[in-house]
């Protein structure tokens, strides 16, 4: 007899009780891990649930969130894996100031100042921003950032450099009018 289904078992043989446990083969997942990219757990057997919904081994899990993967077997056997998948945010950091436009990339549902956005998204206007990324099982990432483009300083030299063409034009026209009148 081969027993390969997970569970807690008892075998009575020659008036001696043997108690043993069969555990499933599990790859692609670790308990307590935090992942930045999608994962694909492979479980050899058992009834498998992901956040209390039936799960098929080998199915990719990509949405950000907090997850509990449960493997149930015979006679009360239960094995649990808790893990988190992040939004894999790139482009901004929490509590940072930027002097130029930023392009943000992420996975999940995101709201920028309470307006829904999709990845990738470019933020170019000056201002203060709150980015919230929501995921499974009450998962939430929050980023505060500010875009402040520096104001250009006006000096006499920069003023002359910007408007020297206008001054040259006025001088040429004035000189032409003066010569024409003579």
Structural account:
By secondary structure, the chain is mainly beta. The chain has 1 helix and 16 strands. The strands form 5 sheets. A 5-stranded mixed β-sheet has the order 4-9-8-6-7, with no helix packed on it. It is rod-shaped and about 135 Å long.
Layout of secondary structure:
Blueprint: E1 7-13, E2 16-22, E3 26-27, E4 34-35, E5 42-43, E6 47-50, E7 53-54, E8 65-72, E9 78-85, E10 96-98, E11 102-104, E12 109-112, E13 115-117, E14 121-123, E15 127-135, E16 139-147, H1 156-181
Parallel strand pairs: 4-9, 10-16
Antiparallel strand pairs: 1-2, 3-5, 6-7, 6-8, 8-9, 11-14, 12-13, 12-15, 15-16
Q: What's the number of extended β-strand segments?
A: 16
Mean pLDDT across residues:
90
Strand order of the largest sheet: 4-9-8-6-7
> What are the low-pLDDT stretches, counting only 5+ consecutive residues below 50?
none
Distance between the termini: 122 Å
> Oligomeric state of the chains?
single chain
Overall structural class, as computed from helix and strand content, comes to: mainly beta
Biggest sheet character: 5 strands, mixed
Range of helix content: 10-25%
Spatial extent as radius of gyration: 33 Å
H and E string: EEEEEEEEEEEEEEEEH
Gross morphology is rod-shaped
Estimate the strand proportion.
35-45%
The number of helical runs is 1
